[in-house]
Amino acid sequence: MKKIIIEGKNITDIETFYKEINRVFMQNESWKIAQSLDAFNDLLYGGFGETNGKENIQLVWKNSEENKKSLGLQPTLAFYQNKLKSPEIFNTNFIINKIDELEKGTGLTFFDIVIEIIADHPNIILLKE
């Protein structure tokens, strides 16, 4: 089983999450994935970067409890509010709904969404440290 380590100490916000993902998964590629949850999900399907399709991977996320905060409620609200600045690109009704859910305490944070994306890949075992 291939072991891949995410160094949570390198993650302080959503931007640095993607920098860390690119450092870990795309180190041998001449290009990097965009700051997109869809791109992160595609990366986990494999075929480029450090993942080769359906191989079994043990993904170790160090300092994940700290990242739960750094990718938590306030960064997620800022993430969605920033998308509202580009209504020609993003579905504003969807985003407003996500903001409302977060404010009511029922929405998923960026960290929660990332964990769900990883869980959708049965060949990847996530160990949070």
Count of helical regions = 6
Strand content: 5-15%
Mean pLDDT: 96
Structural class: alpha/beta
> What is the overall shape?
globular
CATH architectural label of the largest domain: 2-Layer Sandwich
How many structural domains in the coordinates? 2
Domain Barstar (barnase inhibitor): 1-71
Protein name: Ribonuclease inhibitor
Family: Belongs to the barstar family.
Pfam families: Barstar (PF01337)
Overview of this protein structure:
Residues 1-71 form the Barstar (barnase inhibitor) domain. The chain has 129 residues and is an alpha/beta fold. The protein has two domains: 2-65 and 110-128, Barnase, Chain D; 73-108, no CATH class. Helices cover 48% and strands 13% of the residues. It has six helices and three strands; from the N terminus they run βααβααααβ. The protein has helices at 14-25, 37-45, 64-70, 73-83, 92-104, 110-119; strands at 2-7, 57-62, 124-128. It has a three-stranded parallel sheet with strand order 1-2-3, covered by helices on one side. The relative contact order is 0.18.
Q: Key terms for this structure?
A:
single chain, 129 residues, alpha/beta, Barnase, Chain D, 3-stranded parallel beta sheet, globular
